[in-house]
Amino acid sequence: MKKLSARRRHPLAAVVVLLLALAATGGLYAAFAPAGTAQADETSQSLAIDEGKKLYSVGCASCHGTGGQGTSDGPSLVGVGSAAVDFQVGTGRMPAQQPGAQVPKKKVIYSQAEIDQLAAYVASLGAGPITPTEKQYDSAGADIAKGGDLFRTNCAQCHNFTGEGGALTNGKFAPSLEGVDAKHIYEAMQVGPQNMPSFPDTTMPEKNKQDIIAYIKTVNGDNSASQGGLKLGGLGPVSEGLFGWIFGLGALVAVAIWVAAHTAKAKKS
After folding, report:
1. What homologous superfamily is domain 132-224 in, according to CATH?
2. What pLDDT, in 10s, does the model give residues 149-193?
3. Per-residue burial over 25-54, b = 16 or more CB atoms within 10 Å of its CB, e = otherwise
4. Would you give the DSSP letter of residue 71?
5. Residue ranges at the known binding site
6. I want to staple 74 with a disulfide (CB 3.0 to 4.6 A). Which of 41, 63, 177, 224 is the partner?
7. Which residues are annotated as a binding site for heme c?
């Protein structure tokens, strides 16, 4: 006991105890920590980029260049980010069938896994907007009224008050937003595809984007205010009043003419 007590008083005893504690801690961490997680994620990302490059070489390089630098037939993809790829390819706009004033939405030819691989490759060419998570574009509990104000201020000039779409100049158009997936609406606001301006989070925060998505889903959903009749493009009382004036008044005039003609025949007889 005296020898043990003497060793405890040794000047290096505290250092030895600290080293032993550190060694024990390091051993436990090495034994139980998921050491391979980060490495596995890097390997998975690297594989996705490699597969995406193969897909890109077949379906995209002819227009956008072998390294995404762009050509006379397609813009540069350096810095557009994964969100732009997910939107363009996920809505079938890319690969484009033919050049034109605007590339329309069409049937999607890639699976979501392949789209993710393409997005990973293009994202590796330069930093850009990242594909949003489900939490980011989930509009549950969003402020629909505020979304309507934001939409009418920033979007209605092209997309109409209820997202019906409309014609622009030189053969371009703002597409209808009816039935568009919430993720693609969010991505469109992020990247500003084709003629649309972009609204990054510094300009329009994530919460505001969710409000706009909630508004679009409300006015174009099954419970929209137009149920029970034609919404006539969602233009409001102008188009509805014109419809009533032409067809309603026209019908009354026709009835009046028919009554007058039959009244005249009755008098003659």
Report:
1. Cytochrome c-like domain (1.10.760.10)
2. 999 999 999 998 888 888 898 889 999 999 999 999 999 999 999
3. eeeeeeeeeeeeeeeeeeeeeeebbebbbe
4. B
5. 60, 63-64, 155, 158-159
6. 63
7. 60, 63-64, 155, 158-159
